[in-house]
Specification:
The complex is a heterodimer of chains A (264) and B (162). Chain A is an alpha+beta fold. Helices cover 36% and strands 25% of the residues of chain A. Chain A is globular and about 55 Å long. The N and C termini of chain A lie far apart (47 Å). Chain B has 162 residues and is of the alpha+beta class. Chain B folds into two domains: 2-77, Ubiquitin-like (UB roll); 86-161, DNA polymerase, domain 1. Helix content of chain B is 36%, strand content 15%. Chain B has helices at residues 23-30, 86-93, 103-117, 124-130, 142-161; strands spanning 2-8, 11-17, 49-52, 55-58, 71-73. Chain B has a five-stranded mixed β-sheet, sandwiched between helices. The chains are: A alpha+beta (264), B alpha+beta (162). The A-B interface holds A 1-6, 8, 28, 31-32, 35-36, 38-40, 48, 50, 52, 75, 98-102, 104-105, 181 and B 2, 18-20, 22, 41-43, 46, 49, 55-58, 61-63, 65-66, 109, 112-113, 130, 132-134.
């Protein structure tokens, strides 16, 4: 790892101020992606701004709106009775990220800000119609994920919380890579006030996306059978040493059916 | 350089280290606590698992500076000198190791697992799923799983008797 200078932020404003005055700064929360990337020198920030003490952690439900602080860990989301009741698919998704030790450190804000094309959380944000709250504004999930490792965040802007409308009928199914356990395809299905939304991670060559054909089929009949005849279009999907685009297209359909079954 | 202060195995310690120093290196090199191992150094194998503020984490994937102010427990801090915790005793009794390299991380993960689920509340399927972050290249996991289940049951009996 190249050397870096560590700063501990006491609040979101403090973090933004530190980022504004330091060159080549990166925010670190759980660090479960960034620190491995720094060790392999894929990332070499001159300054690291630690958000774990910035008071941005916690889960609350206000009416139908679930708010999750950006530095809330995967273990906290997975273990929260509030999340389990309001949004069971989200709790289930969090319980299958990485391993128990990674879930004790990794955070929801870090995951969505990094927008790894094989990360789990972006699919939930898109399917649930979440709102991403930053230190400057609120961004709809539909506008937030803009490409591989790319988001709508500007320099010095940081995610402070996520707002998710409660959705009892929500489920997630993933096919983990047998070695890395990252999602080779993960599908989040949500049936709520916005209708049925289906979002796919791990498969798209441009990152997370919505599978509109499945949304239409599930809107007329919400059952695994309704998607059994569908096949995702392989043209926009990744092909790599792990799986071809065709294989992933099949996984998208199979995981969608499993996510629907997890709800029913 | 950072001045890092933390409580390690109940003792307040401080030391100077580079900001990029990983917690595992601070424990091993600055404090001489070499029970915590570096296996893969890529956040996969779990040989470096320690408890930070009561939670099992991979000490190769956390900076010492991030852990400043925290309460850290390593394999050396689990039992009193010359004694074994029920988890350590069960690994010995059920031969939950061969070469022993992964064992400190396995014991720290198992201890955390039993803390979270409660003694006596584990089954084989849960233990195997919970060991996802700890790799053993020798045993095939059978005796490790047996040891964790035995420790969990022993601790439940101990709690009932107390």
């Amino acid at each position: 790892m190249y050397n870096t200078t560590y700063h501990r932020a006491s609040s979101a404003d403090d973090a933004a101020k530190l980022a504004g005055s330091a060159s080549e700064a990166k925010f670190v929360a759980g660090g479960q992606t960034l620190i491995p990337a720094m060790k392999t020198r894929l990332a070499a920030p001159e300054n690291l701004i630690d958000l774990r003490h910035a008071g941005m952690s916690g889960i609350s439900l206000d009416g139908d709106m679930l708010t999750i602080g950006a530095t809330t860990t995967h273990a906290e989301v997975a273990g929260s009775d509030t999340v389990r009741k309001a949004c069971p698919g989200l709790a289930s998704l969090a319980s299958h990220i990485g391993d128990p030790h990674v879930r004790h450190m990794g955070t929801i804000g870090g995951s969505i800000s990094n927008n790894d094309p094989a990360a789990d959380y972006p699919s939930a944000m898109l399917a649930l119609g979440a709102t991403i709250v930053t230190n400057q504004r609120e961004i709809a999930a539909d506008d937030f994920f803009t490409g591989l490792f790319e988001t709508a965040l500007e320099d010095g802007e940081l995610v402070t919380a996520i707002k998710v409308p409660a959705c009892a009928a929500s489920g997630y199914a993933k096919f983990p890579n047998p070695a890395s356990r990252y999602a080779m395809t993960g599908v989040f299905v949500a049936r709520g006030s916005n209708g049925v939304r289906v979002a796919v991670t791990g498969a798209g060559s441009d990152g997370v996306f919505r599978w509109t054909e499945a949304e239409q089929a599930l809107s007329s009949s919400f059952s695994a059978d309704a998607v059994s005849g569908l096949k995702a279009d392989a043209s926009g999907l990744m092909s790599d040493i792990h799986a071809s685009a065709d294989y992933r297209a099949n996984l998208v359909a199979v995981m969608t059916a499993r996510a629907v079954r997890a709800i029913a | 350089m950072s001045e890092v202060t933390m409580t390690v195995n109940g003792r307040k310690v401080s030391g100077q280290c580079e900001d990029r120093t990983l917690l595992v290196h601070f424990l091993r090199d600055n404090l001489g606590l070499t029970g915590t191992h570096v296996g893969c150094d890529t956040s996969q194998c779990g040989a470096c698992v320690v408890h930070v503020d009561g939670k099992a984490v991979k000490s190769c994937t956390m900076l010492a500076a991030q852990a400043s102010g925290s309460d850290v427990v390593t394999i050396e801090g689990l039992a009193a000198e010359g004694d074994l915790t029920p988890v350590q005793a069960a690994f010995k009794e059920h031969h939950g190791l061969q070469c022993g390299f992964c064992t400190p991380g396995m014991i720290m993960a198992a201890t955390d697992m039993i803390n979270r689920y409660g003694a006596g509340n584990l089954d084989e399927k849960t233990v195997r799923a919970e060991l996802e972050g700890n790799i053993c290249r020798c045993t095939g996991y059978h005796n490790i799983v047996k040891a964790i289940l035995a420790a969990s049951d022993d601790m439940a009996k101990g709690a009932a008797a107390a």
